[in-house]
Structure formats: C-alpha cells, structure tokens
C-alpha cells in the first residue's frame, strides 16, 4: 500500500468527478436500480432489513466495477448490476456483509442506550405537525456522534468488497486490510470527505437561496444528494486504485483516467 499525502483526498474527489462525467446516465441508472432492489428486499418482513445490509458489499461492487469499466473506456451496461451477485463471489461478499450487519447492530444498540426514547417521538411529531420540536442538547450531540461513528465504520469497510472480488482475499482478511488501509490514509479520507461535504453544503445553500422552500427546491436537492452519493462512490474507486493498484481490466480495453494523473 502506497503512502500518500493528505492532499490526495482532493485529487481523488476530482478524479471521481471525471469518471462520473464520462457516463453519468449509466451510473445514475445503476444507483436507482440498487436503491429499488434494496427497498424491495428491506420490505420483506422479519429478515428483509438484515438481508439488505448483508448485501451492501454486493451492491457496492456494481459501482466499483462500473468505475473500472469507465476508466478502461468501456460502456457500462445493465449487466454490471449483477457483478456482486454471481457465484462464487456472492457467498464471499455476503461474509463481508455479515461484518456490516454486526457493525450495524452494534451502532443500533449504542443509539438505543445513548438517545432517550422520547427523542424519536418528538422528531416524528415535528415531521407530521410541522411545529418545531424541543430536543435535548445531549440527545442531538449523541445522534451527531453516532452518525460520525456510522460514517467512519462505512468508510473503514469500503475496500473490503473490492479486495474480496479483485484480490481474491478471504473476506475477513479483506476487512482487516480495508480497515488498516483507511486508518493509514486517514488524512486523505478526512480531506476528501470535508471537501465532498463542503461542496455539497454549498450547492444545497445556493439552491435554497434561489428556490427557497418550494417543492421544486426539495426535488432538486434530492437529485443533488443522489449526484453526490455517486461522486463519493467514484472517489472511493479512485482511492482503491491508488492504494491497492489498478484492478484487472477486460481484454482489449483502454485506459483513460491514468493519462490525467
């Protein structure tokens, strides 16, 4: 794993944007397909929500593969959505997904003990009545810290799926390498996430100033959220490539992003 300066985080974000600009429609379609399938799975009673969490690595591999195809000058086809669902890799990615599920359950328990039960009732009342809720400062702080822990956990596991898929690592070894790769490159990820969030916040503020609180503004902001999710996915692919090396390309493909390094 190469040692890189913290400023590389901005480069990852820029190169992720370059990848997205090459095939935005294909990546957006892939995102909506993943969201739809995830919602359908989560709707299954009892085990649906847990199954959806276990399948997160399989969903994420679709984006990783799509970014690899774009980098190599290939068209992203709908079949890429099945990248992480084919045998025998599905079984291995589901083992990575069990780690995601374990982390999710731990964070759920922390939330249950750290936040008062009436916090959610007040938030629900605010969303239905529109009246401002009086929230305890300690509950708001606890939720912020839990959100930060959730983000750290997801980022720490972001390379586990591609390491399992491309490097053929055993799932728990891939989790180990992913965690320490992110830990070793913590400065890079902090710069990347701060830049990502800063741009996102600025864009949302501009939309709010121009369109106000209209329904059109809410629709536009929702699209911006989807756009920035894709931008982060592309940036994480660039990060994987920089740290672990370029994944194997399909025969006859051509490299386009490396020329801009």
Give a short synopsis of this structure:
By secondary structure, the protein is mostly helical.
Properties at a glance:
single chain, 261 residues, mainly alpha
Largest sheet, strands/sense/barrel: none
The chain-level structural class is: mainly alpha
Determine the strand fraction and express it as a percent band: under 5%
Q: Roughly what percent helix?
A: over 70%
The outline comes out as: globular
Describe the protein's architecture and organization:
With 261 residues, the protein is mainly α. The chain has one domain. Helix content is 74%, strand content 0%. It has eleven helices and no strands. Helix 2 runs antiparallel to helix 4 and helix 4 packs across helix 8 (160-166). It is globular. It starts with 7 loop residues before the first helix and ends in a 17-residue tail after the last helix. Mean pLDDT is 85; it is low at 251-261.
